[in-house]
Amino acid sequence: MGILVGAIMAFFDQLSVGLLISLLIFLIFLDERYKEIPITLNFLIIILVTISIPNISLNDYVAPLIVMAFLLLIYFGFLLIKKKEGMGLGDIILIFSISLFIGFPNILYLITIASSLLLLKIIFTQKYKEQHAFGSWLAGVFLTFILFQEFYVFEGSVTI
Q1: Residue 55, SS3?
Q2: Whole-angstrom distance, CA of residue 138 vs CA of residue 94
Q3: CA 78 – CA 97 distance, rounded (Å)
Q4: Domain Prepilin type IV endopeptidase peptidase: where (predicted)?
């Protein structure tokens, strides 16, 4: 009986990761095209991330909530000073769900890599004044982390 339950749980884990990968690919194209991440897509990603983490507890939400609170502080501070958005709220919610999946130290690596790649794109295309989709780069780097997780293991971190 235990083997059957384990097999069913492994199947649903693989199914949720497969759905997560599909949603991330959809998000990449959607965000690059329209520069917007629908809230329903973000909530689906949060649900799939929560399902795919075994034995999730309330303590697992502390670091992602701190990251999200910090980004919201930056978001509203920028909005107050510049009177326009610097980063969308969809990006902040996406960062919350990604940090829930990969953990606190790794989210900093992911944000750094995604920002660097987006900065390279801006430099090569020379479109400095236009808005750019950051969520698609976050999702792309996250997708790369998921697909090639056995090739990278950060020192002292738990594997995904």
Answers
A1: coil
A2: 8
A3: 22
A4: 19-119
Q: How far apart are CA 152 and CA 87, in angstroms?
A: 28
DSSP states of 97-116: HHHHHH-HHHHHHHHHHHHH
pLDDT digits (tens, 9 = 90+) for 118-158: 999 999 999 888 888 999 999 999 999 888 876 655 544 54
- In whole angstroms, give the CA distance from residue 77 to residue 71: 10
CA dihedral 19, 20, 26, 27 (to 10 degrees): 160
Look at residue 156 in the predicted model and tell me its pLDDT. Answer: 46
Q: What is the DSSP secondary-structure string of 82-93?
A: HSS-SS-HHHHH
Please give the C-alpha separations between residue 96 and each of 76, 80, 115, in angstroms, as whole numbers.
17, 22, 16
Can you tell me the distance from the alpha carbon of 2 to that of 143, in angstroms, rounded to the nearest whole number?
32
Q: Report how far residue 42's alpha carbon sits from residue 138's, in angstroms, rounded to the nearest whole number.
A: 13
Element housing 4 (H / E): helix 2-34
Q: How many CB atoms lie within 10 A of CB 87?
A: 15
Quick one: which of 109, 111, 108 has its CA closest to 91?
Answer: 111
3-state secondary structure of 132: coil
